[in-house]
Structures
1.
Amino acid sequence: MKPIVVVGSGMAAYTVIRELRKLNREIPITLVSRDSGDSYSKPMLSNAFAQKKDINSLVQTPAAGMAKQLDIKLLANTEVRSIDRERKQLVTVSGEIEYEKLVLALGADPIRIPLQGDAAEAVLSVNDLADYAVFREQLKNAKSVALMGGGLIGCEFANDLATAGYAVAVIDPSAYPLASLMPEQAGRQLLAPLEKIGVTWHFGTSIQSMNKASSGFTLTLANGTILQADLVLSAVGLRSRIQLARDAGLTVNRGIVVDSALRTNDDSIFALGDCAEIEGKVLPYILPIMHAARALAKVLNGEVAKVIFPAMPVVVKAPAHPVALSPVARDAVGTWQLLASGDGVKIGFFGNSKNLLGFALTGEFAGERSEMAQKLAGT
Ligand SMILES: Cc1cc2nc3c(=O)[nH]c(=O)nc-3n(C[C@H](O)[C@H](O)[C@H](O)COP(=O)(O)OP(=O)(O)OC[C@H]3O[C@@H](n4cnc5c(N)ncnc54)[C@H](O)[C@@H]3O)c2cc1C
């Protein structure tokens, strides 16, 4: 019997396998990953430094333990180069693998913004354990960090590094933190609390050039400001890994296009996690992965199932000023309304028929996320 083959060993891959094993202990499963295959929680990467965690303490279960626990064949450090759909085979760096059904859980790549200057290549990004190891090593000799991007991951790193004693400069072309997720009145709540722990903000601009200095780097911003930093970390967003699917003739858009059963335009191939675009939406967070994995496990087990996403609030790990939010769909029509204020704000986004479509909770209101999510679900 040919196996179900899962490509990737991130949260999406391991969650779908775990869910499938709850339904079926017999079905053969092979996991192929180009990384070590160790299981870890990626969200920890942006708040691990202040807790003095190295990669060994971030690994929850090593690859061998995962293989045993889930009763799977695990091929680590094995990159998949192409998919031969006609033969139902994967072509990997170390040979071919046949599949009965194929699950793509390939994740996403950090977006790199091209910079001028002789040190442009030294910009770091942290998207997996190996990146974190490099980042942690370089921080040993640094006192200051410039962060490209004041979105969710940028704010989390800013909070973490400032707590650990680094001078942090955040540079972002938007007007305020978390601008793509919240209205200005909510985003601005983070300014003073993070400044207090050592963050300086540079909004409405971006890094233009990065050059080596006698120690660290000299950064020139588009607005003419010159900054010095020992290390530059980019957190400007991620782009779904779609190339493998595109080369195989699968339908791709912003992500690998799948329906509510997580199925691509090839009946035997499925996708979930950061690489997937599920019914038009790329949802690069943990909760959507959990829901998609449960539905996909049923489908792989031969059942009829589809994913239905409930309200899924996102927590920003910025303890200096906690934030919880439910992003508003891009095409939603309505207005933001302030519901309460104090040490933070509670703001809702209401549609034309006064239905709650999203929210932003900061500071003392961040704890109300379950209550607000229920209101969201009830509308
Ligand atoms: C710093 C950081 C903090 C975050 N914090 C939060 C948070 O607080 N809350 C939240 O909900 N979300 C958070 N997220 C997002 C969340 O972590 C991701 O949505 C999730 O981990 C993605 O899992 P994945 O399995 O889809 O992708 P990944 O974990 O990226 O896994 C992709 C896998 O595919 C493998 N792969 C790729 N290409 C190939 C190939 N050609 N051949 C073989 N293997 C291949 C990779 O090696 C890897 O194992 C955070 C993300 C980051 C980067």
2.
Amino acid sequence: MKLPTTGIIWMNGEFISWQDAKLHVLSHVVHYGTSWFEGIRAYHTKRGTAIFRLPEHIRRWERSMKIYHTTLPYTGHEMEEVCKEVLRRNNLSAGYIRPIAWRGYGEMGISPLGCPVEVAVAAWELGAYLGEAAERGADVCISSWNRLPPNTMPALAKAGGNYMNAQLMKMEALRNGYDEALTLDVDGNVSEASGANVFVVYDGVLYTPPVADSLLLGITRDTVLTLARDLLIDIRETLIPRGMIHIADEIFLAGTAMEINWVRSVDKQPVGNGTQGEITKKLKTRMADITHDGIDPYNWLSFVS
Ligand SMILES: Cc1ncc(COP(=O)(O)O)c(C=O)c1O
């Protein structure tokens, strides 16, 4: 994800230039990873620019902070309007929106409570997250790093510090020539990818790990489950043992940046017959109806103008 060098960022209530969006080196977040963020996509649909599932993202953002006894100093509605305005001010008809809140400069020490809550929203253009692997299918590995067990750091919070674990997975995958990593929970069941949820098709049934399996409750995960239910696909939210990954008919990753990306191999072994599966294709088509054609039966699009 290459960042631009110019543009407008909203920070603590003001629209400022890209270069001026700075924070102090002694901010709590720099030392202790104290941040909560979202990743949201806007699409250039046939009916105009629309942000996908904006209220759900803002709600999850607030919930991520709640786990850490922190409140967003703006209403959800205000933040939704800021997201739209950031797109407009950067002349983006599609792109990736990054709202982030953090504990700033105040006190130094483990407790963040004496440090102010600061907030920013930026946006930029974003193509396929895994580049050419979007078309050809992703080559993934099973990471040697486990996902965070539930009573260590809550995976349900989209918190900056959690991504130290994800970075280890991702770097290991890239170093070994893979596009992405799947990670296991401490018991050896498949949890998620470094920045996306995972789905497995086995004998026509769509499986995904349950909420308690050390994962982020992805909004795309919910989207996929909703679309699958309406396509009358049999769904199971259940533990997926590692072995199932090797005998799956189809595997795909699902996330806002990732969208739906099929997996062609795991640890160098082809998934199914090594081509994109039918259930994956059906779900991608239903997604495109919404994000490309602007057909919106679920009320998931927030139009920007
Ligand atoms: C660790 C992790 N899991 C899952 C997801 C997918 O979540 P969503 O579909 O809400 O983007 C993300 C992306 O934000 C992520 O970082």
3.
Amino acid sequence: MQNIHLLLVDDEDDFRNTLAKRLIKKGISPLQAENGEKALAILENKRVDVVVLDVKMPGMDGIAVLGHIKEKYPKTEVIFLTGHAATQDGVEGIKTGAFDYLSKPIEFEHLFGKIKQAYEKIKREEEKFEEAEFRKYMEEQMMTTERLASLGTLAAGVAHEINNPLAIINESAGWLKLILSKQEMAGIPRKKDFEKALDKIEKGVERAKRITVQLLGFAKKDDSVFAEVDLVELAEEAVHLVKREATNKDIQIVREIAPDTGTIWSDAYQFRQVLINLLTNAIYATDAGGRITVILEAVGDTVKLTVRDNGQGIPKENMKKIFEPFFSTKPPSEGTGLGLFVTRGIVEKLCGTIDVESRLGDGTSFYVNLPRYCKIKEDLDQDERIRFLDRLANKSKSTP
Ligand SMILES: Nc1ncnc2c1ncn2[C@@H]1O[C@H](COP(=O)(O)OP(=O)(O)O)[C@@H](O)[C@H]1O
Ligand SMILES: [Mg+2]
């Protein structure tokens, strides 16, 4: 109640002041107006929850003021004060939208109770509104997630189908190059132009392949194989795969992998993809002499992966965009803008979360948190899954 914004409107100064004093004693300091025009002016500029409104006033009368209030501020509740035995005014007030009416002379506690009821009604409506808003937001979120999931499946399907023709184009270009390099072709006209065109084809295929590889991270349902996956092993493997790239740039990869990190239920290919995407981004962003740290640890029931670099960092205005598909700050020959999009897709599919912290010029950290198990529809081997869950349950029993 102390937070209520209350407005008293009455032309009798004494009456208004006495009322205000008693309200202040209860911890409420009301706004005051001596006529309808002033009341409406206050409402223009200030938030008011409840108005205590006299009917008989010089100038605009109470009913007219009430009509204005209900039209412009429908959420504001009005308690009507009528003259002695003037029930007709009160009924008129209720019809125009007043919360209730009291006849003068009024008893303070009675009025106070009514104010309280009116305020409670407002609070209830606000809660209802907030809940409806929240529900709407959640529904929109779910629609987006579902759309992205089906988009991902579609994209992975397309990527899969495109891989074959890409391979054929690539092979044919290679074959043509080989023919061109033969002695018998040494003197053909515009040989250089053919070679240039073939180079372009090969570069184009390479880029298309990079895109399909990323999109396949969403792996079609029947392609992913879920099993108990040893994260330590996988992390070592992923680091090994990008090691040469790092060494070439004189970047050190430091591993802080807790040997007891344990296993999760996942598709090995997908978790490795997450690691490789984060590592290749880190390598790209880091200058010679830099350092990348891969941390893997068990945190409660989850596994936490951190990939930290001391590279260039991410500008604030890009932080929101980096997970969007096709957002990239790299030249087209080097980036697809799909790495983080796919990474987040995989992490979410595994019921995990991904967060990023970055300071321009200092470096970037990506944090991935994965539960050891999440309900995945694609589970293949029922028996093995059950054995995994049993082990998990026993382990949580033995650790305090
Ligand atoms: N470790 C990092 N340091 C700095 N910027 C990064 C890092 N990781 C990602 N980014 C930024 O996020 C963008 C999107 O990354 P990603 O989705 O993997 O696409 P791509 O690597 O193909 O550009 C990058 O182009 C880069 O601007
Ligand atoms: Mg990338």
